[in-house]
Amino acid sequence: MSAFELQSLDECLDKYLPPEELKEVKRILYGVEQDNSLELPAGAKAIAEEHDFEIKGYRFTARPEQLRKPRLVRVGAIQNSIALPTTAPIEQQREGIWNKVKNMIRAAAEAGCNIVCTQEAWTMPFAFCTREKYPWCEFAEEAETGPTTKMLAELAKAYNMVIIHSILERDVPHGDTIWNTAVVISNSGRYVGKHRKNHIPRVGDFNESTYYMEGNTGHPVFETEFGKIAINICYGRHHPQNWMMFGLNGAEIVFNPSATIGRLSEPLWGVEARNAAIANSYFTVPINRVGTEQFANEFSSGDGSKAHHDFGPFYGSTYVAAPDGSRTPSLSRCKDGLLVTELDLNLCRQVKDFWGFRMTQRLPLYAESLQKASSLDFKPQVIKDN
Ligand SMILES: NC(=O)NCCC(=O)O
């Protein structure tokens, strides 16, 4: 079997494990005691069927409290392939993807989603492997006033939904600088703010440092009508301190719009965002694109292998992890999909009270050690046996 005939690990478990074992395996693997699937409205399912994308629903509950009402929020995470060949005119490529994703946002609205997030650089092929500036920089647009933000602002208002979308940003006032940026649009349709990717990969064919620099927007948390949200863009997933800073700023849900391939990161995928949810007592939503994108000109990986035209398949597998360490199954590894998850944000504080990870965090100790570790005359604290 080739890597991409396997649609999803979950389907595999469901297909081959007897029901009793399956229940125990899911409890151990996903931290879920009972079936936590969420029934979705027929209207949402009909849109998914008509436009050929997967739609799945799950819920995370919290214990009832006496002084606080449940804080239920529905989150929609969208994974998709590109719509047209990478050689098609830029505007047509972008519109093709817009049209796909608009249907998915409509389904999210039907499913009652309050917040929706796209994958990384969602309006374009992930062309940074090529190291070519032309024509890919033409996909870059202004975060606040660009055509994609404008288009989504209308949907955000119409559907009363916060929309987070991750784009290639062109910072016109600062000399047309290019950034990798997530934009937050309020459910009123207003632009709330943006966050620029903090950690830029220099691994495999992820030649993103050719296009943009490390972000300069810190670790903002956006306080919306539906909770305090933040975005840790793709490769920031590998940096526990990046996740931690969003937690220190009070995030309750951290989205992780990504573009990554199986050969490189699939074994890490289920671990990192889930661990971040546990360590920081918040929900995490890692989202990855699907499909294989072919480029006209060959590019090489600088590892002695033959030059090639594609990056390798992106493996989707979008999921949601909760602060208590439980998680949803993943969306497909190959197909466009919308994952709808209902969260009770009260779970964040309940888990903080129970585990005390925040209380026991020892920030001053680490601040002091980090200060030393980042000084020029740093000497690692090693005690030798001699
Ligand atoms: N887009 C991006 O940062 N990808 C890097 C590879 C990875 O983090 O898995």
From TrEMBL:
Gene Ontology terms: biological process: beta-alanine biosynthetic process via 3-ureidopropionate
Enzyme class at the top of the EC tree: hydrolase
GO molecular function terms noted in the UniProt entry: beta-ureidopropionase activity
Keyword Hydrolase: yes
Catalytic function, reaction form: 3-(carbamoylamino)-2-methylpropanoate + H2O + 2 H(+) = (R)-3-amino-2-methylpropanoate + NH4(+) + CO2; 3-(carbamoylamino)propanoate + H2O + 2 H(+) = beta-alanine + NH4(+) + CO2
Listed InterPro entries: Aliph_Amidase/BUP, C-N_Hydrolase, C-N_Hydrolase_sf
Pfam family, one: CN_hydrolase
PROSITE patterns xrefs: CN_HYDROLASE
Domain CN hydrolase: 73-345
This protein's UniProt keywords: Hydrolase
Pathway participation: Amino-acid biosynthesis; beta-alanine biosynthesis
EC number(s) recorded for this UniProt protein: 3.5.1.6
Family statement drawn from the similarity comment of this UniProt entry: Belongs to the carbon-nitrogen hydrolase superfamily. BUP family.
Record's protein name: Beta-ureidopropionase
Source taxonomy: Eukaryota, Metazoa, Ecdysozoa, Arthropoda, Hexapoda
